[in-house]
Amino acid sequence: MGTLAAVGVEQLTGNLYRVLHGRFQAYLWHDDDGVTLVDTGPADSGAEIAVALDEIGLAPTDVRRVVLTHFHDDHVGAAAEIREWGDVEVVAHAADAPIIRGEIPGRPPNLTDNERAIYAQVAADLPPAPPVKVDCEVADGDVLDVGGGAHVIAVPGHTDGSIALHLPAHRLLLTGDAVAEYLGRIVLGVFNLDAQRAVESMRRLAELDVDIACFGHGEPALNGAGERLRQSVLERDD
Ligand SMILES: [Zn+2]
Ligand SMILES: [Zn+2]
Fold it and tell me: Which parts of the chain sit beneath pLDDT 70?
């Protein structure tokens, strides 16, 4: 893959864009009746997302919905700001919603030895996400009116309320941090609360028949994603 611009917007398919902000990213889905953001990047990402919208001929007031894949600060950070842009519905799984609303603290991940040093670096300069109202709490099997139907898949493990979105009509999967791409490989997400549950969730995602998969971190898989996910699961020894 080519080098990433630190900031910018990249069109992935007819309706799907990736918004890059430093080492973080969010996804933007454009339907005729408005925009759905999947995650928001960290707390200072609102302006970048507004610029991205402008670059593709849209405006902040076109945003209808923000789907938060889980409570982590690098995904929820700009949600409170974006919710103020207009008639914006914030969507999250019921298990992570109280954390996103700031009612209870999120539990820190159970780091492996390999993760400990990286996490200290990553977490150090990440601003805490301002609390935001969750307008719509979802559960496994719910279908959102996005892209002809976005199926919510509960993928606990990274956090208790982690979700993925499956858009069957577009053969697309957005995994949040349940899965990641790293150095060309599709891998289990890192910094998990419960790694074993995370593996089970990844196995479930690998059963889906999709072409495209977009991850919370790393390069999207723009073809053969389902097959690559299955291969990645097979190569695990747990
Ligand atoms: Zn995360
Ligand atoms: Zn993340």
Answer: 1-7
